[in-house]
Amino acid sequence: MERAASALAGWRRDAARVDTALYAAIAQTPTPALDRAMARLARAADHSRLSLAAAAALAATGGRAGRRAAVHGLAAVGVTSAAINLLAKPLGRRRRPDRVAEQVPLARHVPMPSTAAFPSGHAASAFAFATAVGHALPPAGVPLRGLAALVAYSRVHVGVHYPGDVVVGALAGTAFAQLTTAALERRVR
């Protein structure tokens, strides 16, 4: 039992080192052409605004299938957001990265959230929406998953998350979307 605990502690330390090294590499890589775009994208994703806009577009232009996809996507965002913000973040309690110490360029900065960093709620919600919409309307899922990946990356680029935060957020959002869509489909039957 002690060996397993020791191995787990060693794995956690190694994972944290890799995570902080990746964060530092992204922070210190000059990308002036990307900086403003990533900051705009990170802000646009606040409060799931991109998902709300996509849901409105799907509902307005996609007929019955588009409305169904929009409902599934927004339901998945609601479930995911609640689970991440009310359960996972308080348990994770990971501090946000120190943008000043890692010299994240000012052009990238967005307001630093006051919540815990782990897992990323932005990544979780974006992937939840994309996964649920993709389940209901597969052709729409591909570009939405690409957008979700960009949203997740933008959170690291602007310096408010470590890479591990967004990876776990993306995985959690995908899982919660699958659970949500399965529950919605059972209810319809």
Task: Give a short summary of the structure.
With 189 residues, this protein is an all-alpha fold.
Structural features, described:
The chain has one domain (34-188). It is globular. The protein is mainly alpha-helical. It contains seven helices and no strands. Helices cover 77% and strands 0% of the residues.
List keywords for this structure.
single chain, 189 residues, mainly alpha
Question: How is this fold's topology laid out?
Answer:
Elements: H1 2-28, H2 32-44, H3 49-61, H4 63-92, H5 121-136, H6 138-157, H7 163-188
Helix pairs in contact: 2-6, 3-4, 4-5, 4-7, 5-6, 5-7, 6-7
Calculate Rg over CA atoms.
18 Å
Helix content range of the residues, please?
over 70%
Number of strands: 0
Major beta-sheet overview:
none
Catalogue the unreliable spans: none
Topology pattern, helix = H, strand = E: HHHHHHH
**Strand portion, in percent?**
under 5%
Mean pLDDT: 90
The helix/strand class is mainly alpha
